[in-house]
Amino acid sequence: MSERYSRQTLFSPIGEEGQKKISSKHVLLIGAGALGSANAEFLTRAGIGKLTIVDRDYVEESNLQRQQLYTEKDVLEKLPKAEAAKRHCQDINGEVEVEAIIMDGTALSLEPLFAGVSLVIDATDNFETRMVINDLSQKHRIPWIYGACVGSVGMSFTIIPGVTPCLNCLLRSIPIQGMTCDTGGIIFPAVQMVVAHQAADALKILVEDYDAVRPGFSTFDLWRNQYQTMKVGRAKKSDCLSCGEAPTYPFLTLENATKTTVLCGRDTVQVRPPAPRKLQLEKLGSDLGGSGFTVKSNPFLLSVEKDGERMVIFSDGRALIHGTKDMVHAKVLYQRILG
Amino acid sequence: MVNVLFFAHLKDVVGKEEVSVEGNEWNVARLKEKIAADYGLEGLESVMTAVNEEFADDETILSEGDTIAFIPPVSGG
After folding, report:
1. Which keywords does UniProt give here (chain A) (predicted)?
2. Reported ipTM
3. Does residue A63 belong to any structural domain of this protein?
4. What CA–CA distance (Å, rounded) separates A255 from A261?
Protein backbone atom coordinates (compact mmCIF):
# COMPACT_ATOMS: atom_id res chain seq x y z
CA MET A 1 0.00 0.00 0.00
CA SER A 2 3.05 2.29 -0.03
CA GLU A 3 1.96 3.74 -3.38
CA ARG A 4 -1.53 4.36 -2.10
CA TYR A 5 -1.17 8.11 -1.47
CA SER A 6 1.67 8.79 -3.89
CA ARG A 7 -0.28 11.12 -6.19
CA GLN A 8 -1.54 13.08 -3.21
CA THR A 9 1.89 13.42 -1.63
CA LEU A 10 3.43 14.44 -4.98
CA PHE A 11 1.17 17.48 -4.74
CA SER A 12 3.70 19.73 -2.99
CA PRO A 13 1.38 21.65 -0.62
CA ILE A 14 0.56 18.25 0.93
CA GLY A 15 3.75 16.19 0.59
CA GLU A 16 4.79 13.37 2.92
CA GLU A 17 4.50 15.66 5.94
CA GLY A 18 0.95 16.61 5.05
CA GLN A 19 0.01 12.98 4.52
CA LYS A 20 1.28 12.14 8.01
CA LYS A 21 -0.91 14.89 9.40
CA ILE A 22 -3.95 13.69 7.45
CA SER A 23 -3.49 10.15 8.72
CA SER A 24 -3.25 11.36 12.32
CA LYS A 25 -6.48 13.39 12.29
CA HIS A 26 -10.09 12.77 13.18
CA VAL A 27 -12.95 14.34 11.21
CA LEU A 28 -16.56 14.53 12.35
CA LEU A 29 -18.95 14.35 9.37
CA ILE A 30 -22.50 15.34 10.23
CA GLY A 31 -24.96 13.99 7.69
CA ALA A 32 -24.60 11.07 5.28
CA GLY A 33 -26.87 12.11 2.42
CA ALA A 34 -25.54 13.47 -0.86
CA LEU A 35 -22.90 15.79 0.62
CA GLY A 36 -22.14 13.31 3.36
CA SER A 37 -21.53 10.28 1.19
CA ALA A 38 -19.30 12.22 -1.20
CA ASN A 39 -17.32 13.76 1.68
CA ALA A 40 -17.01 10.38 3.39
CA GLU A 41 -15.63 8.81 0.23
CA PHE A 42 -13.15 11.65 -0.30
CA LEU A 43 -11.86 11.56 3.29
CA THR A 44 -11.55 7.78 3.18
CA ARG A 45 -9.63 7.78 -0.10
CA ALA A 46 -7.41 10.63 1.17
CA GLY A 47 -6.41 8.46 4.14
CA ILE A 48 -7.91 10.32 7.08
CA GLY A 49 -6.97 8.75 10.42
CA LYS A 50 -10.48 8.48 11.80
CA LEU A 51 -13.87 9.40 10.42
CA THR A 52 -17.03 9.65 12.50
CA ILE A 53 -20.23 9.71 10.44
CA VAL A 54 -23.49 10.84 12.05
CA ASP A 55 -26.84 10.43 10.31
CA ARG A 56 -30.46 9.96 11.32
CA ASP A 57 -31.90 8.54 8.11
CA TYR A 58 -31.87 5.28 6.16
CA VAL A 59 -31.18 4.58 2.48
CA GLU A 60 -34.10 4.88 0.05
CA GLU A 61 -34.43 4.39 -3.69
CA SER A 62 -34.75 8.13 -4.36
CA ASN A 63 -31.28 8.66 -2.83
CA LEU A 64 -29.42 6.60 -5.43
CA GLN A 65 -29.38 9.29 -8.14
CA ARG A 66 -26.88 11.38 -6.17
CA GLN A 67 -25.82 9.74 -2.90
CA GLN A 68 -22.78 8.12 -4.39
CA LEU A 69 -21.86 5.53 -1.78
CA TYR A 70 -25.18 3.72 -1.72
CA THR A 71 -26.46 0.75 -3.70
CA GLU A 72 -29.74 -0.99 -4.48
CA LYS A 73 -28.83 -3.58 -1.87
CA ASP A 74 -28.71 -0.87 0.82
CA VAL A 75 -32.20 0.22 -0.24
CA LEU A 76 -33.57 -3.33 -0.02
CA GLU A 77 -32.07 -3.71 3.44
CA LYS A 78 -33.26 -0.22 4.52
CA LEU A 79 -29.82 0.27 6.02
CA PRO A 80 -29.23 3.38 8.10
CA LYS A 81 -27.07 5.72 6.02
CA ALA A 82 -24.33 6.03 8.64
CA GLU A 83 -23.95 2.25 8.75
CA ALA A 84 -24.11 1.82 4.96
CA ALA A 85 -21.54 4.61 4.50
CA LYS A 86 -19.24 2.99 7.05
CA ARG A 87 -19.38 -0.39 5.27
CA HIS A 88 -18.63 1.10 1.86
CA CYS A 89 -15.82 3.28 3.22
CA GLN A 90 -14.21 0.29 4.88
CA ASP A 91 -14.31 -1.57 1.54
CA ILE A 92 -12.56 1.40 -0.09
CA ASN A 93 -9.83 1.86 2.51
CA GLY A 94 -9.28 -0.59 5.34
CA GLU A 95 -6.64 1.67 6.91
CA VAL A 96 -9.22 4.23 7.95
CA GLU A 97 -11.07 3.89 11.24
CA VAL A 98 -14.72 4.61 10.51
CA GLU A 99 -17.31 5.10 13.23
CA ALA A 100 -21.03 5.18 12.37
CA ILE A 101 -23.46 6.89 14.73
CA ILE A 102 -27.16 6.53 13.96
CA MET A 103 -28.87 9.46 15.64
CA ASP A 104 -30.43 12.86 15.18
CA GLY A 105 -27.86 15.62 15.61
CA THR A 106 -28.89 17.99 18.39
CA ALA A 107 -26.93 20.25 20.72
CA LEU A 108 -27.04 17.56 23.38
CA SER A 109 -26.21 14.59 21.17
CA LEU A 110 -23.51 16.29 19.08
CA GLU A 111 -21.51 18.06 21.79
CA PRO A 112 -19.68 14.96 23.10
CA LEU A 113 -18.59 14.14 19.54
CA PHE A 114 -16.63 17.39 19.24
CA ALA A 115 -14.03 16.16 21.74
CA GLY A 116 -10.73 15.45 20.03
CA VAL A 117 -11.74 16.14 16.43
CA SER A 118 -9.69 18.38 14.14
CA LEU A 119 -12.47 19.40 11.81
CA VAL A 120 -16.24 19.17 11.43
CA ILE A 121 -17.80 18.89 7.97
CA ASP A 122 -21.41 19.91 7.51
CA ALA A 123 -23.48 17.60 5.35
CA THR A 124 -26.81 18.26 7.03
CA ASP A 125 -30.00 19.30 5.29
CA ASN A 126 -31.30 22.01 7.62
CA PHE A 127 -30.23 25.28 9.21
CA GLU A 128 -31.33 24.28 12.71
CA THR A 129 -28.59 21.66 12.93
CA ARG A 130 -26.08 23.94 11.20
CA MET A 131 -26.60 26.62 13.82
CA VAL A 132 -25.99 24.00 16.52
CA ILE A 133 -22.77 22.96 14.73
CA ASN A 134 -21.81 26.64 14.47
CA ASP A 135 -22.19 27.21 18.22
CA LEU A 136 -20.38 23.99 19.14
CA SER A 137 -17.56 24.90 16.76
CA GLN A 138 -17.10 28.25 18.52
CA LYS A 139 -17.40 26.78 22.00
CA HIS A 140 -14.83 24.05 21.31
CA ARG A 141 -12.66 26.12 18.90
CA ILE A 142 -12.90 23.59 16.08
CA PRO A 143 -13.18 24.70 12.43
CA TRP A 144 -16.18 23.58 10.40
CA ILE A 145 -17.09 23.74 6.73
CA TYR A 146 -20.62 24.70 5.75
CA GLY A 147 -21.96 23.23 2.53
CA ALA A 148 -25.45 23.15 1.05
CA CYS A 149 -27.20 22.55 -2.24
CA VAL A 150 -30.66 22.63 -3.78
CA GLY A 151 -31.53 22.25 -7.46
CA SER A 152 -28.47 23.45 -9.37
CA VAL A 153 -27.41 25.85 -6.61
CA GLY A 154 -24.69 25.25 -4.09
CA MET A 155 -22.70 27.18 -1.53
CA SER A 156 -19.83 26.66 0.85
CA PHE A 157 -18.06 28.63 3.55
CA THR A 158 -15.26 27.65 5.91
CA ILE A 159 -15.50 28.89 9.48
CA ILE A 160 -12.35 29.09 11.62
CA PRO A 161 -13.04 30.26 15.19
CA GLY A 162 -11.16 33.43 16.06
CA VAL A 163 -10.32 34.13 12.41
CA THR A 164 -13.43 34.23 10.21
CA PRO A 165 -16.96 35.40 10.91
CA CYS A 166 -19.33 32.57 11.84
CA LEU A 167 -22.56 31.44 10.18
CA ASN A 168 -24.59 33.36 12.76
CA CYS A 169 -22.76 36.60 11.76
CA LEU A 170 -23.80 36.01 8.16
CA LEU A 171 -27.36 34.80 8.64
CA ARG A 172 -28.34 36.44 11.96
CA SER A 173 -31.28 34.05 12.21
CA ILE A 174 -32.42 30.77 10.74
CA PRO A 175 -33.64 31.56 7.23
CA ILE A 176 -37.11 30.48 6.22
CA GLN A 177 -36.63 27.14 4.56
CA GLY A 178 -38.74 24.76 2.54
CA MET A 179 -39.22 27.39 -0.12
CA THR A 180 -37.01 25.44 -2.48
CA CYS A 181 -36.14 22.19 -0.71
CA ASP A 182 -39.34 20.37 -1.50
CA THR A 183 -39.84 21.78 -4.94
CA GLY A 184 -36.34 22.39 -6.25
CA GLY A 185 -35.00 18.86 -6.45
CA ILE A 186 -31.25 18.41 -6.71
CA ILE A 187 -28.82 17.44 -9.45
CA PHE A 188 -25.63 15.47 -8.84
CA PRO A 189 -23.16 18.07 -10.21
CA ALA A 190 -24.40 20.65 -7.68
CA VAL A 191 -23.56 18.15 -4.93
CA GLN A 192 -20.12 17.51 -6.43
CA MET A 193 -19.32 21.19 -6.75
CA VAL A 194 -20.11 21.82 -3.08
CA VAL A 195 -18.09 18.81 -2.03
CA ALA A 196 -15.14 19.97 -4.16
CA HIS A 197 -15.11 23.23 -2.20
CA GLN A 198 -15.52 21.48 1.16
CA ALA A 199 -12.93 18.80 0.37
CA ALA A 200 -10.26 21.24 -0.82
CA ASP A 201 -10.57 23.33 2.35
CA ALA A 202 -10.69 20.18 4.47
CA LEU A 203 -7.31 19.11 3.04
CA LYS A 204 -5.85 22.57 3.73
CA ILE A 205 -7.05 22.48 7.34
CA LEU A 206 -5.89 18.89 7.86
CA VAL A 207 -2.37 19.72 6.63
CA GLU A 208 -2.54 22.96 8.65
CA ASP A 209 -2.07 25.24 5.65
CA TYR A 210 -4.49 27.80 7.05
CA ASP A 211 -3.29 30.63 4.81
CA ALA A 212 -4.60 28.70 1.82
CA VAL A 213 -8.15 28.40 3.18
CA ARG A 214 -10.69 30.05 0.86
CA PRO A 215 -11.42 33.38 2.54
CA GLY A 216 -14.90 34.00 1.19
CA PHE A 217 -18.40 32.62 0.92
CA SER A 218 -18.76 30.84 -2.42
CA THR A 219 -22.02 30.45 -4.28
CA PHE A 220 -22.75 29.00 -7.69
CA ASP A 221 -25.64 27.96 -9.86
CA LEU A 222 -24.54 25.35 -12.41
CA TRP A 223 -27.70 25.66 -14.51
CA ARG A 224 -28.06 29.43 -14.59
CA ASN A 225 -24.25 29.75 -14.92
CA GLN A 226 -23.69 32.07 -11.98
CA TYR A 227 -20.66 32.16 -9.70
CA GLN A 228 -19.77 34.48 -6.88
CA THR A 229 -17.31 34.50 -4.00
CA MET A 230 -18.25 37.12 -1.46
CA LYS A 231 -15.59 38.58 0.85
CA VAL A 232 -16.72 38.35 4.45
CA GLY A 233 -14.05 40.18 6.49
CA ARG A 234 -16.44 42.94 7.48
CA ALA A 235 -19.20 40.51 8.43
CA LYS A 236 -17.63 39.52 11.76
CA LYS A 237 -19.72 41.09 14.48
CA SER A 238 -18.29 41.77 17.94
CA ASP A 239 -21.76 41.39 19.45
CA CYS A 240 -22.46 38.05 17.73
CA LEU A 241 -23.92 35.69 20.34
CA SER A 242 -22.08 32.75 18.79
CA CYS A 243 -18.58 34.16 18.11
CA GLY A 244 -18.55 37.68 19.60
CA GLU A 245 -17.01 39.06 22.77
CA ALA A 246 -19.70 37.66 25.09
CA PRO A 247 -20.97 34.49 23.48
CA THR A 248 -24.05 32.72 24.87
CA TYR A 249 -24.24 30.01 22.18
CA PRO A 250 -27.98 30.52 21.71
CA PHE A 251 -28.50 27.45 19.53
CA LEU A 252 -27.30 25.11 22.27
CA THR A 253 -30.36 25.88 24.38
CA LEU A 254 -32.64 22.88 24.60
CA GLU A 255 -36.35 22.92 24.15
CA ASN A 256 -37.89 20.42 26.43
CA ALA A 257 -40.57 19.12 24.10
CA THR A 258 -41.12 16.55 21.43
CA LYS A 259 -39.89 18.12 18.24
CA THR A 260 -41.21 17.69 14.76
CA THR A 261 -39.31 18.62 11.62
CA VAL A 262 -40.36 18.46 7.98
CA LEU A 263 -37.46 16.72 6.23
CA CYS A 264 -36.05 18.74 3.37
CA GLY A 265 -37.03 17.46 -0.06
CA ARG A 266 -39.17 14.63 1.25
CA ASP A 267 -42.79 14.10 2.04
CA THR A 268 -41.82 13.12 5.54
CA VAL A 269 -42.02 14.47 9.08
CA GLN A 270 -39.53 13.48 11.75
CA VAL A 271 -40.82 13.26 15.30
CA ARG A 272 -38.39 12.98 18.16
CA PRO A 273 -38.97 12.68 21.89
CA PRO A 274 -37.50 15.26 24.33
CA ALA A 275 -34.93 12.71 25.47
CA PRO A 276 -33.81 9.54 23.69
CA ARG A 277 -35.77 6.42 24.56
CA LYS A 278 -34.61 2.85 24.49
CA LEU A 279 -37.36 1.04 22.63
CA GLN A 280 -37.58 -2.74 22.49
CA LEU A 281 -38.07 -2.89 18.73
CA GLU A 282 -38.71 -6.62 18.62
CA LYS A 283 -41.53 -6.44 21.15
CA LEU A 284 -43.00 -3.31 19.62
CA GLY A 285 -42.94 -5.01 16.21
CA SER A 286 -44.80 -8.07 17.39
CA ASP A 287 -47.34 -5.91 19.27
CA LEU A 288 -48.01 -3.81 16.19
CA GLY A 289 -48.15 -6.91 13.96
CA GLY A 290 -50.90 -8.15 16.23
CA SER A 291 -52.83 -4.88 15.82
CA GLY A 292 -53.09 -5.17 12.07
CA PHE A 293 -49.91 -3.30 11.09
CA THR A 294 -47.66 -4.61 8.35
CA VAL A 295 -44.27 -4.74 10.05
CA LYS A 296 -40.78 -4.99 8.54
CA SER A 297 -37.70 -4.77 10.67
CA ASN A 298 -33.93 -4.96 10.84
CA PRO A 299 -31.69 -4.60 13.89
CA PHE A 300 -31.76 -0.80 13.60
CA LEU A 301 -35.36 0.11 12.87
CA LEU A 302 -38.96 -0.89 12.47
CA SER A 303 -41.02 -0.01 9.40
CA VAL A 304 -44.76 -0.18 10.04
CA GLU A 305 -47.66 0.43 7.70
CA LYS A 306 -51.43 0.61 8.16
CA ASP A 307 -54.23 2.24 6.15
CA GLY A 308 -51.71 3.78 3.76
CA GLU A 309 -49.78 5.46 6.58
CA ARG A 310 -46.12 4.46 6.83
CA MET A 311 -43.83 5.11 9.73
CA VAL A 312 -40.25 4.11 10.47
CA ILE A 313 -39.31 3.88 14.14
CA PHE A 314 -35.75 3.88 15.48
CA SER A 315 -34.78 2.40 18.82
CA ASP A 316 -34.02 5.84 20.31
CA GLY A 317 -37.73 6.67 20.00
CA ARG A 318 -37.38 8.78 16.90
CA ALA A 319 -39.81 8.21 14.04
CA LEU A 320 -40.11 9.21 10.40
CA ILE A 321 -43.72 9.64 9.32
CA HIS A 322 -43.95 9.22 5.55
CA GLY A 323 -46.52 10.61 3.15
CA THR A 324 -47.12 13.84 5.05
CA LYS A 325 -45.69 17.30 5.67
CA ASP A 326 -48.24 18.01 8.39
CA MET A 327 -46.32 18.10 11.66
CA VAL A 328 -49.39 17.83 13.85
CA HIS A 329 -50.73 14.85 11.90
CA ALA A 330 -47.32 13.24 12.21
CA LYS A 331 -47.23 13.76 15.95
CA VAL A 332 -50.72 12.29 16.26
CA LEU A 333 -49.69 9.15 14.37
CA TYR A 334 -46.53 8.91 16.42
CA GLN A 335 -48.30 9.26 19.73
CA ARG A 336 -50.95 6.78 18.67
CA ILE A 337 -48.20 4.16 18.53
CA LEU A 338 -45.62 5.32 21.05
CA GLY A 339 -47.63 7.33 23.57
CA MET B 1 -28.15 54.13 -10.30
CA VAL B 2 -26.98 50.78 -8.91
CA ASN B 3 -26.85 47.34 -10.53
CA VAL B 4 -28.75 44.49 -8.90
CA LEU B 5 -27.87 40.85 -9.61
CA PHE B 6 -30.37 38.08 -8.90
CA PHE B 7 -29.02 34.64 -8.01
CA ALA B 8 -30.63 31.23 -8.32
CA HIS B 9 -34.44 31.15 -8.35
CA LEU B 10 -34.64 34.94 -7.87
CA LYS B 11 -33.39 35.22 -11.45
CA ASP B 12 -36.37 33.19 -12.66
CA VAL B 13 -38.91 35.20 -10.65
CA VAL B 14 -37.55 38.51 -11.90
CA GLY B 15 -37.10 37.16 -15.41
CA LYS B 16 -33.59 38.55 -15.83
CA GLU B 17 -30.25 38.33 -14.13
CA GLU B 18 -29.47 42.00 -13.75
CA VAL B 19 -31.36 45.28 -13.44
CA SER B 20 -30.23 48.86 -13.06
CA VAL B 21 -32.27 50.83 -10.53
CA GLU B 22 -32.25 53.97 -8.42
CA GLY B 23 -30.47 53.37 -5.09
CA ASN B 24 -27.62 55.84 -4.66
CA GLU B 25 -27.27 56.65 -0.92
CA TRP B 26 -30.02 54.19 0.01
CA ASN B 27 -29.38 51.45 2.52
CA VAL B 28 -29.74 47.79 1.57
CA ALA B 29 -33.01 47.40 3.51
CA ARG B 30 -34.64 50.18 1.47
CA LEU B 31 -33.40 48.67 -1.77
CA LYS B 32 -34.79 45.27 -0.75
CA GLU B 33 -38.21 46.80 -0.04
CA LYS B 34 -38.29 48.53 -3.40
CA ILE B 35 -37.15 45.44 -5.31
CA ALA B 36 -39.63 43.22 -3.44
CA ALA B 37 -42.47 45.55 -4.39
CA ASP B 38 -41.41 46.06 -8.01
CA TYR B 39 -40.73 42.42 -8.84
CA GLY B 40 -43.00 40.52 -6.45
CA LEU B 41 -40.06 38.88 -4.67
CA GLU B 42 -40.90 37.30 -1.34
CA GLY B 43 -38.57 36.46 1.54
CA LEU B 44 -35.85 38.97 0.62
CA GLU B 45 -35.27 39.60 4.34
CA SER B 46 -33.51 36.22 4.61
CA VAL B 47 -31.52 36.63 1.40
CA MET B 48 -27.81 37.37 1.73
CA THR B 49 -26.53 40.55 0.13
CA ALA B 50 -23.15 41.27 -1.39
CA VAL B 51 -22.17 44.80 -2.39
CA ASN B 52 -19.29 44.79 -4.87
CA GLU B 53 -18.64 41.15 -3.90
CA GLU B 54 -18.37 41.95 -0.22
CA PHE B 55 -20.83 40.86 2.47
CA ALA B 56 -23.31 43.62 3.34
CA ASP B 57 -26.05 43.93 5.94
CA ASP B 58 -29.33 45.84 5.81
CA GLU B 59 -27.69 49.07 7.06
CA THR B 60 -24.97 49.17 4.41
CA ILE B 61 -25.21 52.41 2.42
CA LEU B 62 -25.04 52.15 -1.38
CA SER B 63 -23.12 54.39 -3.75
CA GLU B 64 -23.56 55.28 -7.40
CA GLY B 65 -22.47 52.39 -9.63
CA ASP B 66 -22.43 49.71 -6.88
CA THR B 67 -23.26 46.14 -7.82
CA ILE B 68 -25.60 44.45 -5.36
CA ALA B 69 -26.07 40.68 -5.49
CA PHE B 70 -28.98 38.97 -3.76
CA ILE B 71 -28.06 35.40 -2.86
CA PRO B 72 -30.67 33.13 -1.29
CA PRO B 73 -29.11 30.71 1.23
CA VAL B 74 -29.94 27.06 0.61
CA SER B 75 -30.24 24.31 3.16
CA GLY B 76 -30.28 20.98 1.31
CA GLY B 77 -27.54 18.48 1.54
Report:
1. Membrane, Nucleotidyltransferase, Transferase, Transmembrane, Transmembrane helix
2. 0.93
3. yes
4. 14
